[in-house]
Amino acid sequence: MAEASPAKKLKQSVKGYLYNVSPLKDPQKSYFDATLQHGSECSKVVVFTPQEHAQFQNAEKNRSPVNLEDVILQPSKESYGKMNVFYTHSSTMSCICDLGDTFNNTLPAEHQEITLAELPKLVTKVQRVNIIAKIMQEEHKGNSVVWDGRYLPRTTYTVADTTAYISLTVWCEHNITIGEWYRITNVSMKQFKDKTSLTTTKDTRILNIPSQGAAVAVEVPTETIRCEIIGANVKNFFICLRKHNLSHITPSSPTVYCPSCKTHYKTSATTMKFSVHLDLKPETEGIIHACAEDEVIMPVITVKPNASRDEIIQSLMALPTMQVTICNNVIVKIEDASESHNPLNAEIKSDEVVCSLKLPTKVEPLEDSDSVFYSPPDLGLFSSSQQKKI
After folding, report:
1. How confident is the model at residue 189 (pLDDT cuts 50, 70, 90)?
2. For 76, how many CA atoms within 13 A lie in the half-sphere containing its CB?
3. Residues 360, 207: Cα–Cα separation, whole Å
4. In this structure, are 43 and 72 located in the same domain?
5. CA 327 to chain centre
6. Does residue 185 share a domain with residue 288?
7. Is the pLDDT reported for residue 233 higher than 90?
8. Would you state the pLDDT for residue 387?
9. How many CB atoms lie within 10 A of CB 297?
10. pTM of the model
11. Residues 245 and 145 sit within 8 Å (Cβ to Cβ)
12. 366-390 b/e with 16+ CB inside 10 Å = b?
């Protein structure tokens, strides 16, 4: 493939075989993508002419060698040292009789898995890779706004193979089981402050596979501290019925417009979400900075569903000494420190402890926290017998 200066955006002609032609992209269905195999390499093709989707599908089905003319070449942000092919409205595709090479089913080489220990050695800042790993534990779970404005569920796991372990963020809901092995394709690798992490993309596929052996030991820094909240910064936003982030919303306005849905909604039908950054003062010296989402914060504060940013901050500042569990600078659990140390909430380990608590003889013993909770028994008969004694 001929190279071109991305600044000049010179139009080129490329030849090869098409495969992995995607469906039309939602929500506007204004483009689709494919992969072009040329020689011993493969390049991503982004097509901005949806009316030619059937033509690209036929070329893939028939394994016809094609010539893409007047396309734009730009460096790939996903694969270091490679070029993406942009097929615009001025580009054309034609089938050619003989390319000289046959379609190679063993390509592309980048679809092969890479070990977790090799990931930090990749020099590119953004790279899509394939891995085989075991889901070791769940770090934290929440929701976040993605690049297209949608508010999606997000779960961060610690995954490991036989060489290393790493943090993997999985967007949307997936049927993932802790302790199982998975083949995970088309995940994006990112490096921030010398720390490598992975995140799923719209093209990611997660497939459960048999055990691949013993994974490396995992050490995730998690700590639980007693602390006082001395600082808070709250960012609140609103979500429409289709989970789009709404900007520049006025809560007092009766309606709000969602550009993604192209629909006006009642403001009362939207949902307010918020995230917080807290400054925590432990009982020991030092200040800890950590973030949290509303799913973690709401159970411990008292505010109305449509509370303002200032009301949320005041409620956070009014909290007593709290017991906070932090994983990778993210608060995963927060509770009143006085309640967490209440002897009545402690685990009963012996008959001697039971006697010291002076429990009534008719009270059922406490179950372990991991047990399934059932409704209390019907005490109607017990109550009636007491009345008879009276």
Report:
1. confident
2. 17
3. 53
4. yes
5. 16
6. no
7. yes
8. 43
9. 22
10. 0.58
11. yes
12. eeeeeeeeeeeeeeeeeeeeeeeee
